[in-house]
Amino acid sequence: MSKTLDQIWALAKRNELKVSDHGYDELAVDNILVRDIVHSLPQAECLEDYPDYFKGPCVLLLQVDGGGKPIHAVWGIPKGETSPAVLITAYRPDPLRWSKDFRRRVK
User: Fold this and answer.
1) Which residue from 19, 14, 15, 12 is spatially nearest to 86, judged by alpha carbons?
2) What is the pTM of this model?
């Protein structure tokens, strides 16, 4: 279990969410909808947790879109703040760089 993910989920339940400019750009590149990211957050699986990241705690999550396709999303909380949860980036994982279940890096 990830404390960072717990904090992000609590913020999401209070609708204290933000998408970074970079996040919007990456969502557009991979044709990912914000609503899919937010909707699948309760079922997200934490792949990597960085509670001491210098910009603030963040996590890499495995999520899915409305069609069940995998998405990797990086969520964080700004350093020294308690809100909002920020979607830093989201992308379709490259099957050549990730295991078949998209949970582990292979290259």
Assistant:
1) 19
2) 0.94
**Domain definitions of the chain by residue range:** 3-91
In whole angstroms, give the CA distance from residue 105 to residue 21. Answer: 26
Question: Where does the chain have alpha helices with state H?
Answer: 3-13, 21-29, 34-40
The parts of the chain modelled with pLDDT lower than 50 are none
CA distances to 17, 80, 106 from 73, in Å: 14, 22, 18
Whether the upstream peptide bond of residue 84 has omega within 30° of 0, thus cis, is yes
Instruction: Name the 3-class secondary structure at 68.
Output: coil
